[in-house]
From TrEMBL:
Molecular-function GO term, any one: DNA-directed DNA polymerase activity
Organism: Noctiluca scintillans (Sea sparkle)
Protein name from the UniProt record: Uncharacterized protein
Gene Ontology annotations of biological process type: DNA-templated DNA replication; double-strand break repair
InterPro entries: DNA_polymerase_A
Length: 221
């Protein structure tokens, strides 16, 4: 029971922790859970630390020189015993954690608590540019799909502008049809889009799709 999640024991509301902490009847259960959580967290820490301490940290940054190795009693002992001296740095992955990751974790915690200052003007500008790029890409895709017609001349995707472009299911049905697309269909559509890329996304070599392109309207002068 001590391994049960917080949500299963006390609920998922934002005030769940505060409510159980301030409830005299449930407070003992809260203390039990908190204590068990601390004990298990410490045991996990000890386990992970032992694994890191048993793994050598191999890096050119801290590679030991031959002179340093020969003055290491452990290295001399291994050489005299006829053993191969491992090409290590003398450090473990626990040292790597101590050197770099521990302070980095503190930095991340501070960033989460304090936040990062940003320029609102820059964010709004980037947002506007991203939305414009997204709209442009959407229109190019819709125009491409609207240009494809069946052998009888009918437009294959007359309702394409109402499609949800964020739906992977709808895109799969649009490009491959049905629920289980054939592998050959993937190659056909992939080749078609390669041709479209070379043409600057203006037209599709519709023979690759097995259809005829809808002729563009001619403007009479």
């Amino acid at each position: 029971d001590g391994l049960a999640s917080f949500a299963n024991l006390f609920g998922v509301s934002e005030l769940a922790a505060e409510e159980v902490h301030n409830d005299p009847q449930r407070f003992p259960r809260w203390v039990e859970y908190s204590t068990m959580d601390a004990v298990l967290t410490y045991k996990l820490f000890v386990h992970l630390r032992s694994k890191l301490e048993s793994e050598m940290w191999r890096t050119e940054v801290h590679r030991r020189s031959v002179h340093e190795k020969l003055h290491d009693p452990n290295t001399v002992k291994m050489l005299l015993g006829g053993k191969v001296v491992p090409d290590d740095t003398g450090y473990t992955m626990w040292d790597f954690y101590q050197f770099y990751l521990r302070d980095f974790a503190v930095c991340l915690a501070d960033l989460e608590q304090e936040g990062i200052g940003v320029s609102r003007e820059a964010v709004e500008r980037i947002k506007a540019e991203a939305m414009a790029d997204s709209k442009k890409g959407h229109e190019e895709f819709v125009d491409c799909m609207e240009s494809i017609s069946a052998p009888d001349g009918k437009i294959l995707n007359p309702e394409i502008r109402h499609m949800n472009m964020g739906s992977s299911v709808q895109k799969r049905i649009l490009l491959f049809g049905g629920d289980k697309p054939q592998a050959s269909n993937f190659k056909i559509v992939r080749d078609a889009f390669k041709v479209m890329d070379k043409a600057g996304r203006q037209d599709v070599h519709s023979e690759l799709l097995g259809f005829e392109s809808k002729p563009k309207k001619q403007v009479l002068h």
